[in-house]
Every structure is written in C-alpha cells, then in structure tokens.
Amino acid sequence: MTKNAMFKLDKTERKTISKMFWRNQFLMFCTSYTKQQGITFGWLMAPFLQRIYGKDTPEFYDAMQRHLDFFNTAPAMNGFISALSLSMEEENKQMVDEGKFFDPTSISALKTSLMGPLAGIGDAIYLSVLRVIATGVALGLSEKGSYLGPILFLLIVNVPNMLIRWYTTVVGYKAGGQFISDALKSGTFQAITKGAAVLGLIMTGAMTAQFVTFKTSFTAQLSGTTFNLQSVFDSILPGLLPLGITMICFAYLRKHNKPVTALVVMFIAAVVLTVLGIAG
C-alpha cells in the first residue's frame, strides 16, 4: 500500500475513523484492577460491532465478549489497536458471509500481542519526550513571568498527542495486520522505543543542569586561608550537588515512594542548612 493510499480516506472511512478517534479519548474513563481498560474498550467498539454484526445478534455478543477481556496499553496509542481490531472484525464478517474460515481468536491474540510494544512506545514518547520538552520550555518562560509558559506546555503536549491519535487510528484501520507483522520483523517498534527513550534522557539531563540549583555558602578561616566548601565540590565536578540531589530523588521515587515526602524532606533540609549557615 502506497503512502498516499494509506492516508487517503473516503467519506465512510473518515466518518468511522472520526467516531473511533473521539471515543478513544474516553479509554481511561472506566478502569478496574481485573480488566484495566477492558470495559471501556468494549464500550468503544460496541457501535462498530453493531454495524458489522447487527444489533442483539449472537455474533455481536460474541464479538463484545472478545473486546471486554483484560486490556491495558498507552491510551494515546490505542487508536491503532482499536482500528486494527475493527478492520479484522470486518474481515471476519466478510469471510464468514463468503463461507470461508476466519479464526476470531486471532483478533484477541493480536490485541494482546500489541499491548506491550505500543505501551512502551507510547510511554517513551509521551512521558520521556513530549512532557519533558514541554516542561523545559514552559519552565524557562514561566520563570520570567511569561504567560506563554503554560500555553506552550499545553500546545507542545496536546498538538502532537492529537495528531498521533488520529494518524495511528488511520494506519491501524487501513494497513491491517500486515503492517504489524512487517514492523515486528523489521524491528521498527524497538527502534522507535529506544530512540524516544534516549532523547528523553538527554532532555532530562539538560533540564537537571538548567533548573536544579544548589550551592553551599559555608566558608571558614583555616591557617590564615579561606576555606570555601562550594569550591571543593566544584573542583570535583561542577554541578555535583544538584546532580546528587536529583539522583537521590530519582532512586527514592523509583521505589514507588510518595513525591510529597521527598518535597517535605527537601524543604526541611533547606531550612536547617540555611539556619546552620551551610546553604543560603
């Protein structure tokens, strides 16, 4: 399938994809420990399954049962999975009507196989890249009192988010299962995930150097010379203290501790160090 054919939609396809795009926004509306996003995924698919199999038919209820199973992935990447599932349901209906065999369990199997890879890509793009870049831009402008800070944060996060949600839905519906097979064989998923993770780490390091600041103000007279504690740290590694604080917080939060506790501890430590004259 050519690139132009991939994204070219007729009126019926555009209507279907548009409806699926908007219903996908509610994927996290109802989650549970047993099925995660499964209930909402079933709700998302219901009107399309009614159109394919008919309302209140045994085939409709069988299809609904398939899509009410456990499901969990990055919400922004779900457009691809839901559209691909819809494409396979249409193929199932067509082949059954023609008297040919189609294994409906392959639909559930494909959903399950895609949850992990697409969750990894989605988390890498949204948590490690878009949100980090948006925060870096917003912090710089907000520090100067500019209203562009929060505005650009929302734009940088949400404009790519909406575009990705739309075009992954289009690709899932138009490309079908062959796209997934080719992507898995060629290593495309792994390459995207790794590249996004590396870019996110670079941005995190840049933000740490720019926005995390901590310097000691402790000085003392020793044998007629002035001892400056901050100069000692700078001679070891410039920015050593901010880096150390960042890594300690990272290690603490990585153990699923509460961020509020870390903030309270840092606030108390800042007060104590200031009173003692070590920092200020």
Pick out its properties.
280 residues; mainly alpha; two-stranded antiparallel sheet; 12 helices; 2 strands; 73% helix; elongated
Report on the architecture of this protein.
- The chain is mostly helical and 280 residues long.
- The chain has 12 helices and 2 strands, in the order H-H-H-H-H-H-H-H-H-E-E-H-H-H.
- The chain has helices at 3-7, 11-24, 38-53, 58-66, 78-97, 105-143, 148-175, 177-186, 188-211, 229-236, 240-254, 259-275; strands at 219-222, 225-228.
- Strands 1-2 form a two-stranded antiparallel ribbon.
- Helix 3 runs antiparallel to helix 4, helix 3 (38-53) runs parallel beside helix 5 (78-97) and helix 6 (105-143) runs parallel beside helix 9.
- The longest helix is centred in the middle third of the chain and has 39 residues, at 105-143.
- It is elongated.
- The mean pLDDT is 83.
Question: Concise description?
Answer:
This protein has 280 residues and is an all-alpha fold. 73% of the residues lie in helices and 3% in strands. Strand 1 and strand 2 (225-228) form a beta hairpin.
Give the total of beta strands. 2
Give the uncertain stretches in residue-range form: none
The average pLDDT is: 83
Largest sheet: 2 strands, antiparallel
Shape: elongated
Q: What's the order of the H and E elements?
A: HHHHHHHHHEEHHH
Q: Output the radius of gyration.
A: 26 Å
Note the gap between the termini.
Answer: 64 Å
Strand content: under 5%
- Indicate the percent of residues in helices: over 70%
Helix/strand/pairing category:
mainly alpha
Discrete helix count: 12
Spatial order of strands in the largest sheet: 1-2
